[in-house]
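step=encode ok
step=design start
structure_in=
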């Protein structure tokens, strides 16, 4: 299956607007993040497990355990604060 990735805020600055990612059926948000980490380089730096990164699946906040389907849009972004 293929999901469309989107990156926002500081992640967009490092990784660009987004890309497509091929994953096995039954993959989760955590699986997608792990696949990106395995690429090394900027992906590993930006999405390191030591960094807090939020995810949205089809424009709704989700847990890393959320399962993906073919054609889904998965967005990664850093936590947002305001004042």
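sequence_out=
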């Amino acid at each position: 299956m293929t999901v469309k990735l989107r990156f926002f805020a500081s992640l967009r600055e490092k990784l660009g607007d987004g890309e497509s990612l091929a994953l096995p059926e039954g993959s989760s948000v955590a699986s997608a993040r792990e696949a990106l980490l395995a690429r090394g380089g900027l992906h590993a730096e930006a999405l390191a497990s030591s960094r807090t990164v939020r995810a949205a699946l089809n424009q709704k906040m989700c847990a890393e355990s959320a399962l993906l389907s073919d054609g889904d849009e998965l967005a990664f972004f850093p936590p947002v604060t305001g004042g």
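step=design ok
step=annotate ok -> The longest helix spans residues 29-38.
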